[in-house]
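Researcher: Re-running this chain for the archive, since the previous output was lost when a drive failed. Same request as before.
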Amino acid sequence: MLTFYLNGLISNFIFNCELRIANWFDKVFTSRDSIARVTDYDLERVRL
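Model: Regenerated structure tokens:
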């Protein structure tokens, strides 16, 4: 019974870590996309 409980705790912890990592990647990539959009816009403005 104790091993079953510990397995549940460990898998829950790993799942939470994966969720946090996924959220961090989402934040990083969305910020990179917005930075790229700004530079594209600036390049178009300079070209005009």
